[in-house]
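Weekly modeling sync, notes
Attendees: S.R. (lead), two postdocs, one rotation student

Agenda item 3: backlog of single-chain predictions. S.R. asked that every request posted to the team notebook include the full sequence so nobody has to chase files. The rotation student volunteered to paste the first one in as an example of the format we agreed on. Action items at the bottom.

Example entry:
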Amino acid sequence: MNSNVEKHRLVPAGIVFPFILLTSLFFIWAVPNNMTDTMLAAFKRIMSLSDTQTAWIQVVCYLLGYGCFALPGAIFIKKHTYKYGVLLGLGLCIFGGVLFYPAMLANNISSPLSFATYLLAIFVLFAGLSVLETSANSYVYALGDPHTATRRLNFSQSFNPFGALTGVLASQIFVLSQLNTMSAAERAVLNEAELVNVQNAELNAVTIAYLILGLVMLALFLLIFFTKMPQAQDEDKTLNLKATFNRLKRNKNYVWGVVAQFFYVGAQIAVWSYIIRYAMQQLQFDAVISGLGNNASQESIIAALRSVEPIAGGFYNLAESLGIDALLPRTAEQAGATYYVLSLVLFVVGRFVCTFLMKWTRPVNLLSALSVLAVICSLVAIYGQGFIGVYALMGISGCMSLMFPTIYGIGMKGLGEDTKIAGSGMVMAIAGAALLTQMQGILSDQAGSIEFAYWVPTIAFIIIAFYSFTVARSKKIKINR
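Predicted structure, as returned to the notebook:
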């Protein structure tokens, strides 16, 4: 009995500290992911951009960054080791963070040049995140007993939403709170020098946040570099891409897993990217704040927003009691970000609850139930009004909590020596975020309704539900040799 328990340990004996370091990566890469989600709202105000223009941030993040660098990252770790793949990913992230500084300086030349340079910095940062995720997800999955691989990955991924929450709180405290409350129309009447001064102050807040993130990643880089990391079960450096691709494309379970992951990540980023805009519009935060007149005090703004609906009011009361005044809103974007924070709290709770339930419930059953519930919440978000729609949109985050690691674990079953390259396919599927977010931005601009644009993630959840009720339940999992 004891030998069986030892055999099916979640984490193999003797590698607890290296496993903690690996799990910390799941936390740290979520910080820039979710900070960048809030950058859509920030850059929209700073540079008076449309939804379609701000969606280019997500295209650069997920199509170019994640989509183009996952496979090269997988090839790199196949030729070298998981450890060096992790270090390469962290190194690119650090360099991307440094590039935010020249991007800020470029605003003194022109705003379009500055925005383009920020996109370059974000591209390098997310290229690093792509390599980092490709390495860490596959490393944790292969580091121990295959019977506990999906649960082990869910455990490490459970710390990812803490990083997501940290990213949103950091952006709210250090970036969104520093935005000037002037609207696009008010900025348009400023002379060039006045506008540049306003933008520079806002961009300085953005840049400092990412430079600090780069320093934290540098500390992790040094810790992992000087730590002896364990070998995984699939630490085979033989590379034959043609044979690997042929095996993978014949594996229906894996192919459908990548498709489901593509739509899941697209849905997740689509839901979160516009949650601030959605809450601002549904709860009319701009009108509430403008109704207070020019130069309204933060106290009067908070008092007005506190009465809009009870959940946010309770959040503001909690922030005040804890002395975290930076979470109290002074702009409509900050008020909208409150619901992003609360959504991530649901995401965190859902991830741990689902990981716990997997001791007794098959992961695929949880995936089926929550994908159906996500469709229902999405429809309420589309057709619901006011706080009902906002609550439904928040509920989607609880439904999404287990989806990425569970789809990853189901799709990667039985891949053996192909695990590293297959892992890159799962990470490349993150490119779905670029496509679906861009589609959502275009639909929002064309329809003039951010609510209607939530049909994009709704369709994605329908596809995930189909996958969970069909291919994911197949008892004939093909084993790659």
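Discussion: group reviewed the output briefly. The mean pLDDT is 80.
Action items: rotation student to repeat for the remaining queue; S.R. to check formatting next week.
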